[in-house]
Structures are given as C-alpha cells and as structure tokens.
Amino acid sequence: MNNLFFDSDVTLDSIKNLKIAVVGYGNQGRSQALNLRDSGLDVVVALQDGSKTAQKAREDGIETMSIKEAVSSCDIISILIPDQVMSGVFEKSIARYLKPGKTLLFSHGYNIHYGDIKPPDFVDVVMVAPSGPGYAVRKEYKRGKGIPTLIAVEQDASGNAKDTVLAYSKAIGGTRACAFESSFKEETETDLFG
C-alpha cells in the first residue's frame, strides 16, 4: 500500500536542521519532546507564563521559553495542549507570530477540522497523531519500538509538508511501527465516534 510508511522509507533530513517548538508539556508534549530530543533534533518546550510544567521540562534537560518566543524563533510549532484551550492560545500567543516557511503540527485534528483554528495560508498545516497515550509513545520509543501514527497534510504552502510529517513521525518513533496516511477529518471523527 502506498499510504503506509516505515522507518526504512523515511529519513530525518527534512527536519534535522530545523528548530522544533513543542507547545505544552503534558500527556503528549513531554513524550514527543523527549523523543524528538533523543532523535538528535533541536527542540524547545513552549509554555504559558506561570506554567507548572516548566520545572519538569528543565529537569528533563529541555530548554523552555514563552509560546510567542518559540513561535517567533522555531520552524515547526507542534501544538500539544488540550483541544478545549487550543484555539484561545492560538489566537493569543501563536497566530500573530507566524511567518511564511513555518509549520503548524497537531496530534489531533479537532480544532482544524471544525474550524476553531484558521491558520494563515502561508504556513504548512500537518498532523502526526500517535495511536496511543503519551506515556506509551515514550515507553515504546525507549524500548526501540514505536506507536503507530496517523499522518495528514491539510495545507502544503512549502511543498515539503509530507516530508515534514514523515520525518516527525520517525523522530517520535511512529514509523518504527507504521505511519498511516489519513486526514484531519478522518482522525477527528474516528477519535470522537470510533
């Protein structure tokens, strides 16, 4: 099948020289940030002022910064905060700092599919959605294995969005199991109604 991807199909080349901001350090944020770092990528954790998880990220050896600083200075912005607060954080701390060439990455399609977040047309909008909780994403990565991921490209302003999602999936361990090509709509409806 041409919509399944494994480690041997993918390299990290498309993102190895990019800076990645993981917004949030909870269930998925911590696991994905640590896996990205352990894959040799340049990753920071972006948090709201006064976040209680900043100390944990620093203890884990990951640099922290404000969301607006991270969006301004990073190439890939992986938004891994709860769906119910995501659109507000996007409007307040992300949207105005986006520039052409940046990628918005999600691990759940809800806010894009239902239009709560409307990204500008000059950024890539992609999804890498692990088919399991964050603790399993980290645990399997450390065992040399991975959790399957659903990948999707909603908006390809750069022409390289698919390479980005595949490389990101590889970096968090997803292609060790399998990355399945999907869509924001399919991932959202499967998650909500499956």
What is shown here, in short?
This protein is of the alpha/beta class and about 190 residues long. The chain has helices at about 25-40, 55-60, 65-75, 85-95, 110-115, 135-140, 160-170, 175, 185-194; strands at about 5, 20-25, 40-45, 65, 75-80, 105, 125-130, 150-155, 180.
Report, as a whole number of angstroms, the end-to-end distance.
Answer: 23 Å
Characterize the overall form: globular
| Helix proportion range | 25-40%
The SSE order reads EEHEHEHEHEHEHEHHEH
Assembly status: single chain
Largest sheet: 9 strands, mixed
Largest sheet, spatial ordering of strands:
1-9-8-7-6-5-2-3-4
Tell me the fraction of residues in β-strands, as a range: 15-25%
Mean model confidence by pLDDT: 95
DSSP, total strands: 9
- Annotation field: number of helices: 9
Provide the structure class: alpha/beta
Radius of gyration: 15 Å
Describe the structure.
This protein has a nine-stranded mixed β-sheet. The chain contains nine helices and nine strands. Helix 1 (27-38) packs parallel to helix 6. With 194 residues, the protein is of the alpha/beta class. The two termini are 23 Å apart. It is 39% helix and 21% strand. It is globular, with a radius of gyration of 15 Å.
Key attributes of the depicted protein:
194 residues; alpha/beta; 9-stranded mixed sheet; 39% helix
Topology record:
Blueprint: E1 4-5, E2 19-23, H1 27-38, E3 42-47, H2 54-59, E4 64-66, H3 67-73, E5 76-79, H4 83-94, E6 103-106, H5 110-113, E7 124-130, H6 134-142, E8 149-155, H7 161-171, H8 174-177, E9 179-181, H9 184-193
Parallel strand pairs: 2-3, 2-5, 3-4, 5-6, 6-7, 8-9
Antiparallel strand pairs: 1-9, 7-8
Helix pairs in contact: 1-6
